[in-house]
Amino acid sequence: MLVVSRLLSSSISCSSRTKYRLKSISSQMGSENLLPEKRKQATLRLCNVSSHMTELLELRAEDPLINILLIPGNPGIISFYKDFVEAVYELLGGKASITAIGHISQTRKNWEGGRLFSLNEQINHKVDFIKNELQYAEIPLLLVSHSIGSYISLEIFRRLPEQVKYCIGLYPFLSLNKESAKQSLIGKIVVSQIFSFLVSSTAAVFGLFPSWASRFLVRRSIGKSWSATAVEAGCNYLLQYHVMRNVLFMAMTEFDKLSEAPDWRFIRGKWDQIAFLFGHDDHWGPLSMSEEITKQVPDVALTIEREGHTHAFCCSEAGSLWVAYHVVSLINRQILIASQ
């Protein structure tokens, strides 16, 4: 773990020099341009993973000391995470290579011809990517995940325990919240082929509008507090039939699988290599789940964010930056402790 210690020393030094100021983030939640304009930009590329065209968002370090793989939520559209990925890279002083991997068929182009993919197929897809692209990497692999991505990353960790060194779950969706009226409504929509078809078709019709009109619709509906990056991603992806249909189908399979309790035995066995961040008001990752985790695995690293960011933290610059700080602080504290 010497390389991790080197990374941590470098990132701590970088953090002291960075233009970011964590204390001011919450007070600027409604403002734009919190991130430095001259930061290194993440690049989007296509990669064939087990015969599935996959979108990757990457920032490559010249001499990386650590690999970070970001597993998104659902929608698994990695363009939503651009600000977050770039913030993490900057805060780590450019010493980490970061890759965000998108879900199959939640891509800008309809590569899969309308085929629908389940939660388990998306998990297999991520495992195949690690085996094919990161198998021979000699530097540590960290999984950073969001929402249902947290469930996916834990399953990856369970299947590849020798390759994964640490796993961070952000606003994790690990089990159904039976107290949530929103989840109950979503559950009824996703199990109905008729409703799923209507929702996806409506989104596709909006996608035919001129770009200015699409941006207006997204901002006025789901994206009232979104950054320009998130609005652009929403217009380019969510307003396509194949993307929305896959989002809803994957959600249906999530609801089926997550009716089961989390694998507490596995989490207890890996407690010192796992961390969670919960939101104060998040029906996907409610405080009741954080309390259950604390009960089942008392020593696991668990934080509750009370700054007013939402489950979709990556859709605002303030949320992306705050969570990026949190992730880097976890790397500094938890992995440094583990390496001693």
Automatic annotation (TrEMBL):
UniProt keywords, alphabetically: Hydrolase, Lipid droplet
Signal peptide: none
InterPro entries listed in its UniProt record: AB_hydrolase_fold, LDAH
Gene3D superfamilies xrefs: alpha/beta hydrolase
MF terms (GO), sorted A to Z: lipase activity
Biological-process GO terms, alphabetical: lipid storage
Subcellular location: Lipid droplet
Pfam families referenced in this protein's UniProt entry, alphabetically: LIDHydrolase
Domain of life: Eukaryota
Coiled-coil residues: none
A GO CC term assigned to this protein in UniProt: lipid droplet
Family affiliation: Belongs to the AB hydrolase superfamily. LDAH family.
Protein name: Lipid droplet-associated hydrolase
Species of provenance: Nelumbo nucifera
